[in-house]
Amino acid sequence: MKRTNNIKSSVCLSLTALIWGVAFVFQSMGNNYMQPFTFNAARNLLGCLVLVPLVILRLKKPELLPGDGEKHVIDRRVTIIGGVCCGLALATAGMFQQYGVKYTTVGKAGFITTLYIILTPIFGLFLKKKCHFTVWIGAVGAVVGLYMLCITESLSLSAGDLLVFICAVFFAVHILVVDYFSPKTDGVLLSCIQFFVCALTCGVIALIAEQPSWEQLAQGAVPILYTGIMSSGVAYTLQIIGQKNFNPTIAAMIMSLESVISAVASYFAYRMGFLTQDQSMTAVQILGCLIMFCSVIFVQLPFDKLRQKH
Length: 310
Fold this sequence. Notes:
The chain is mostly helical. It is 76% helix and 1% strand.
């Protein structure tokens, strides 16, 4: 049963990485029409609205949370607290990422952001979450792959790099917060509250620091629809479902494949004319992609079971 649940979680998190990877193309398109906080507020509000019908249906059921052969009534107080914590972590990470990208290159931002692969197990140690040594080997391999993927950029530290690094810190915090709350409540409810809190936070900042308009939203409708429905509504919900009772470090590594997928998606988007900047990958970058895939597969191999057989 545990093995089956792990496969289910891996599939959910892999789909999350796929959707997020493709979303980079639409996020790049969205920046052409509006400012970062306006875009983030719109996409997260849409993500929240998409889940509202499911939330209404699930709230009508008194027993929603499956356990070991039983069902338990969901604690709404825990759900609300979890949603607020997840939403604030997500909004903060997005804030530092959007402003950091303004002052550094996209390649460096992508590499620094996905340092949450290493930060997640490090922070997990303070929460007494132990990792098998293979996870650390795989995490290092994933970071090496990411470096090779972004090796065309200089890695000198700038103000933008620091902002994006703080973003990576909060993405790691978000993963651990999800890991804590997801087994205690319903994933759809938690996700919906998360998006509402994130949309509200970004919306308030957008009204203060930016000049959002209906015209901007209308012009950027396509990227908002994809990132709102797929990237926010679907992918983040899959993340919460996939992380339930699943190793957060391995979850972070699987989701980090979004960098590889974004590189592939951006290349095809460029070839199809959706992006104007050349997105071709070098041999070294392709090798980096392969190392990342191998690292993720490596940490999911059943080493303990193989050792027991011998």
